């Protein structure tokens, strides 16, 4: 889409471009391969903690996936120690939206699919905007208050209530 073209790909450090996989890399994980620059996917953001790229099946005019650069399992595997990571993922999502001139955060959805309703086990935040332009199927797939999709705020609240676990 034309409005998505405004994001410039980021420059990644040479360690990512090397043929030696980084620590926290799962060679079978498509998102690990994407953040490791093995798939030719344009990275809109990439640093040692967080990476972001466009969803291949967008559910809204702006649909981005924000992922930990190192492999982290799905949201069911998280605990209270992961709250800062989830918050950082949301912040990166907001930054990407802002770079694409999306300033109305009341018409944005940040969330995660709850297992078993996620197709990739690497933790990934869906950033969708504007929600008001989502089609029927997208509204269903990314539905609030469903048992298959939780908002970032709901996940943070759940993790904070879990306490420390192994």
Descriptive overview:
- The chain is an alpha+beta fold and 166 residues long.
- Helix content is 27%, strand content 16%.
- The protein is built from five helices and six strands; from the N terminus they run H-H-E-E-E-H-E-E-H-E-H.
- The protein has a six-stranded antiparallel β-sheet.
- Strand 1 and strand 2 form a beta hairpin.
- Helix 3 packs antiparallel against helix 5.
- The longest helix is centred in the middle third of the chain and has 17 residues.
- The chain is globular.
- The N terminus is likely disordered.
Termini separation comes to 43 Å
Biggest beta sheet summary = 6 strands, antiparallel
What is the 3D form?
Answer: globular
Helical region count? 5
Topology order in helix (H) and strand (E) letters: HHEEEHEEHEH
Brief synopsis:
The chain is of the alpha+beta class and 166 residues long. It is 27% helix and 16% strand.
List the SSEs and their pairings.
Blueprint: H1 14-17, H2 30-35, E1 45-46, E2 50-54, E3 62-68, H3 83-99, E4 109-113, E5 125-129, H4 136-141, E6 149-151, H5 152-162
Antiparallel strand pairs: 1-2, 2-3, 3-5, 4-5, 4-6
Features:
globular; alpha+beta; 166 residues; 6-stranded antiparallel beta sheet; disordered N terminus
């Amino acid at each position: 889409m034309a409005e998505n073209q405004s994001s410039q790909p980021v420059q990644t450090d040479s360690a990512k471009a090397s043929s030696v996989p980084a620590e926290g890399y799962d060679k079978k994980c498509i998102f690990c391969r994407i953040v490791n620059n093995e798939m030719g996917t344009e990275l809109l953001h990439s640093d040692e903690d967080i990476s972001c790229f466009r969803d291949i099946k967008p559910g809204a005019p702006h649909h981005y996936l924000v992922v930990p650069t190192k492999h982290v399992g799905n949201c069911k595997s998280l605990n209270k120690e992961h709250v800062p990571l989830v918050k950082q993922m949301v912040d990166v999502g907001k930054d990407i939206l802002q770079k694409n001139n999306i300033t109305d955060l009341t018409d944005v959805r940040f969330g995660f699919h709850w297992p078993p309703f996620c197709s990739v086990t690497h933790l990934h935040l869906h950033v969708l905007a504007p929600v008001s332009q989502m089609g029927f199927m997208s509204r269903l797939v990314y539905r609030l208050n469903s048992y298959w999709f939780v908002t970032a705020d709901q996940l943070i609240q759940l993790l904070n209530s879990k306490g420390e676990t192994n």
